Structure prediction request, 307 residues.
Amino acid sequence: MAAITASMVAELRGKTDAPMMECKRALTEAEGDMVKAEELLRVKLGSKAGKAAARITAEGVVVTSMDGNVGALLEVNCETDFVTKNDSFLGLANAAVALVAKNNPADVAALGALAYEQDGFGPTLEDVRKGLIGKIGENMTFRRFKRFATGAQLASYLHGTRIGVVVEFEGDATAAKDVAMHVAAMKPVALTSNDVPAELVERERSVAAAKAAEDAAVATAAGKPVQSAEIVAKRIEGGVQKYLKEVSLFNQTFVKNDKQTVEQMLKAASTNVKAFTMYVVGEGIEKKVDDFAAEVAAQVAAAQQAA
Prediction:
């Protein structure tokens, strides 16, 4: 069985806001599997433990480049927040996203091969990246990008440098900009309920079923009546439908007017949103959490062996 360290408990608590002891129990039951532990906490604690998707797990910036109906969105990662404020790093990021929009590279390798000079480094973007790594003293990478050139109108929004959104639309530019801001705030995963990925729906159904089973076990232990299978099935499906409304853009309550859904706001503005893309810095990247106690112990052991 995997050892459950204090740093693992702290990481899970940071992702879920669950109590420390609950985090430790979940990790122990999940044998150290962080994703499974999150699901176990959601079963026990409900939505209070469902905040992992909004957490930032690495450093870097998201930048955009827009020129009419052509644009690009790019994430550039680095090791510390300090470097995200460095002028040379920001210059590299902004130059790279402009190159994506202009040249339509096939992938990160093709992007790096494009001509670019900065701070005495070049003649390619990759040469500049490597040069700045040596100059600044931190690793930096072009993680992902997307170019937009479908003929649709484009609206973009940056929340600081950590969240970037591009909306493809037809209609009113102000309404589309508001949608981009809404996406950054509410983080939908799809335009409509039907567009939510099947694996996310099944995961939510599994969590709802496990929660229902947990409640039934508690009721049985307390000598209370247990809900019928039909009621439980309706309850599970109701939970899934609630989830779909919460994560689909058109069904979400508009952040600027809690009396309207996003779909209703767009209809009133005669605007059609065709797609949106959101990048959150470090999303899906496991950030290293140093276990200083273990590091010191290892150093002491090494010193004793050397002696």
